[in-house]
Amino acid sequence: MMNYYHNKPDVRERVLKHGLQYPSDEELVMLILGNGAKGVPIRRLSRKVVETLYESNSGDIVKNLSSIKGMGTGKTLAIAAALELGRRKNAHIHHVIKQPRDVVPFIKQYSVMPKEHFLSITLDGRHAIIQIHVVTIGTINKVLVHPREIFSDALSENAAAVIVCHNHPSGTCEPSENDILTTQTLIDAAHILGITLLDHIILDRDTYFSFLEHELLFTLDD
């Protein structure tokens, strides 16, 4: 049997060893497609896909990919879906946060998670988002966090400020006593590290609660 149905195993092995930053664009496409087509080896097909992507406007990608020999509907949509997922995943980068509700669209997907997810959103001196990190995942109604987990990413990214966030799967975004105590601890740690804790946002399916908007960004000594 011809080998056009098989991906190059060395690409997979190198990615597993070195990470997704290692492969070329062509090799990333090879990983997405998984196999070539009859008469079109995987590497040649991937090279043509990359060329087409760089020559296409966003609205023409599906049409242009579909015109490539060996690219059926499944392969075309797999590439288009990967591009869209990447766009959504990175839409937050460099977005300036001026008020609490500005950050909500970038974290709203966590509001429907069945377990609590605690997030750390790092920002630069302009309060533009550097990155959104999932710090820890808890149970349906509880998640434990430690300041070192929250601020390790902020320190490594030279962040000037941080917004923390978590979801309440139970259905109400009102802060618990533990949420308030955790926030107070994080404020103290942020002060020591020279990083500003801008807000703590709690999400449920319908709305959000901002510690900043409710004037709850204080410590026990205030």
Summed up:
This protein is of the alpha+beta class.
Label this structure with key terms.
single chain; 222 residues; alpha+beta; five-stranded mixed beta sheet; 8 helices; 15% strand; disordered N terminus
Structural class: alpha+beta
Strand order of the largest sheet: 2-1-3-4-5
Average pLDDT, all residues = 88
**Fraction of residues in H or I helices:** 25-40%
Could you walk me through the main structural features you see in this protein, from its secondary elements to its overall organization?
The protein has 222 residues and is α+β, with helices and mostly antiparallel strands. It has eight helices and five strands; from the N terminus they run H-H-H-H-H-H-E-E-H-E-H-E-E. The chain has a five-stranded mixed beta sheet, with helices on one face. Helix 2 (25-33) packs across helix 3 (42-55). The termini are far apart.
What's the topology here?
Elements: H1 9-18, H2 25-33, H3 42-55, H4 61-66, H5 73-89, H6 104-107, E1 117-123, E2 129-137, H7 147-156, E3 161-167, H8 177-193, E4 196-203, E5 208-210
Parallel strand pairs: 3-4
Antiparallel strand pairs: 1-2, 1-3, 4-5
Helix pairs in contact: 2-3
